[in-house]
Design goal:
The protein is of the alpha/beta class and 283 residues long. The protein folds into two domains: 3-175, 3-Layer(aba) Sandwich (Rossmann fold); 182-276. It has helices spanning 13-22, 36-46, 53-59, 69-79, 95-98, 127-130, 153-165, 177-208, 213-231, 241-254, 265-276, and strands spanning 3-8, 27-32, 62-65, 88-91, 109-115, 141-149, 169-174. Strands 2-1-3-4-5-6-7 form a seven-stranded mixed β-sheet, sandwiched between helices. The protein starts with a strand and ends in a 7-residue tail after the last helix.
């Protein structure tokens, strides 16, 4: 039996991506978008028309929420009484679920999924695929999935939708919502994005000291590649004695002793609450 998906936020940037990937999949998709600009964007990209939210929710077996983190709780509270028992509600980020923003209703399924994005250690067959950094178009990527509440049988049906919206998918990892919140924002944004930003700032600082910009960029990106290969064991090499000495001497200057504290549960919870309540007091 074909499942019906109500895609909320279908005209947004992520919504259009999902709508595009759901074309040709074995689902009946009802597209919901509140803004006229979003409706027009979706129509131009896919040719489909939107329906009213009430119509979509009344028919939905699954509600797919392609909406900003800060709005997930508000929107979910607004429609939760309109969905049928057994409905699967899929969210694309762990922030709102982990922060306790979802309405209480025991007879629906809450499922969270997020893309890992294509690995830097990938070898795509075309340049276009190699340049698909986000994923969901040409490059293979892994995904993470969590069944927050609901019968275990619902994991498979929601995971199948996750694989469709993020395709092409290489691997699907089952985790908990708590795991997913540690992965993002804590590991991938709080830590990784910050350190990568520092790498760019270091490159700019080198250029400011007179090194030619192209030389600095080539040198930085080339060294990042081999050093990542070594550290993540994708390349059977090792750091030179000089590099190991430089790391030992520099790490205390660049990183606080307690920098991994950002992975602690209370720090992760504070972070997701701030994401869900930007500019306001976290509840």
């Amino acid at each position: 039996m074909t499942q019906t998906i109500a895609l909320l936020g279908a005209g947004g940037k992520m919504g259009v991506r999902l709508a595009t990937n759901l074309e040709g999949e074995p689902y009946d998709v009802l597209h919901v978008e509140v803004s006229e600009a979003g409706r027009q964007r979706l129509k131009e990209a896919t040719g489909v028309e939107c329906v009213e939210m009430g119509q979509a929710l009344g028919s939905a077996d699954v509600v797919l929420m392609a909406v900003p983190d800060a709005l997930i709780g508000k929107i979910a509270h607004g429609f939760i009484d309109q969905v049928r028992p057994g409905t699967g509600i899929i969210m694309l980020d762990a922030a709102a679920p982990h922060a306790g923003e979802l309405p209480k209703r025991d007879d629906v399924t809450y499922f969270v999924t997020h893309p890992c994005h294509p690995s830097i250690f990938r070898y795509e067959p075309t340049r276009e695929a190699q340049k698909d950094y986000f994923g969901g178009v040409l490059a293979m990527q892994a995904i993470v999935c969590a069944l927050m509440q609901g019968p275990d049988a619902d994991y498979a049906r929601c995971e199948a939708i996750a694989k469709a919206i993020y395709k092409p998918v290489s691997r699907s990892h089952r985790v908990t919502v708590e795991d997913m919140a540690i992965l993002e924002p804590a590991m991938s944004e709080t830590i990784a994005a910050t350190l990568i930003t520092a790498l760019r700032e270091a490159t700019d600082a080198v250029v400011a000291r007179g090194v030619p910009a192209e030389a600095a960029r080539d040198f930085m990106l080339g060294h990042i590649g081999i050093e990542m290969g070594i550290i993540f064991e994708d390349f059977p090499g090792r750091f030179s004695d000089g590099a190991l000495y430089a790391i030992e001497k520099a790490k205390p200057k660049l990183l606080r002793d307690d920098w991994l504290k950002v992975l602690e549960p209370d720090e992760v919870m504070a972070s997701v609450r701030e994401i869900c309540n930007p500019g306001g007091k976290a509840s």
